[in-house]
């Protein structure tokens, strides 16, 4: 096929797609400058990571001589971009939809400043998360290794940032942040989830924590755990309702467990065994495990299939 023919076909397809844009569907919107910029939001997360962990991460674009000057530049950068991004999305909140651009900018500036003022509190919680990871993982060489490399800590860090914006009523940005962490770590924590101190995610891949989940202090969760809703078939009619479980202090949830339902409360000091499926509340201090598991071994045609039930002992319960 000659270049002229290809060019003509491309021109025809261009016209066809432009015509398709003329509808009034959600995907037909053509005002990208009035929408949040995902690249800028992700860049802000990187700068906030430097602010939260000043001794571990740095911005190579800045040449500074004092910690104060470096921090000041980072805060001004985050403030400028966060204000801009909030001003772009604040109109999605019906409270601010009637505001003109100047009023939206004023609201965005106040919300951005309120968020930045929360950073010391965020750092207080993050310090406990690092400690929980070190205390809970015998494979951890030191705390620096956790900060640099553990996906669970990164997902928690992003959630703690996003959750503060969520509490301030900022639309869209918190979800963009946590879904970015989800794409990097495989850990899906909704920014609406409330999480206490000393939270440890071990391994982490496949974890899902829903919007209305409440998690107390000193909770440990392994890979593949779901803290979810019993059903979402009601769709938007379930908005703002408690759909996800409450996990009290000092709970450990092993890999593959699913805990579902807004009325489900897991009491203090409970241990949930791997692959458990829970839709009812568990009293404090209980150990939940799956009994009567059956193992099958099929070596070859010369040997019969052997069946073996897992015993009632507790040793298997702690094996990951």
CATH architecture of the largest domain: Orthogonal Bundle
SSE-based structural type = alpha/beta
CATH C-level name of the largest domain: Mainly Alpha
**Count of structural domains:** 2
Listing every helix as H and every strand as E from the N terminus to the C terminus, the arrangement reads HHHHHHHHEEEEEEEEEEEEEEEE
Largest sheet, strands/sense/barrel: 5 strands, parallel
What report would you give on this structure?
It is a single chain. The chain has 320 residues and is an alpha/beta fold. It has 8 helices and 16 strands. The strands form 4 sheets. It has a 5-stranded parallel β-sheet with strand order 1-4-7-10-13. Strands 3-6-9-12-14 form a 5-stranded parallel β-sheet. Strands 2-5-8-11 form a 4-stranded parallel β-sheet, with no helix packed on it. A hairpin with an 8-residue loop joins strand 15 and strand 16. Helix 2 packs antiparallel against helix 3. The protein starts with a helix and ends in an 11-residue tail after the last strand. Residues 315-320 have low confidence and may be disordered.
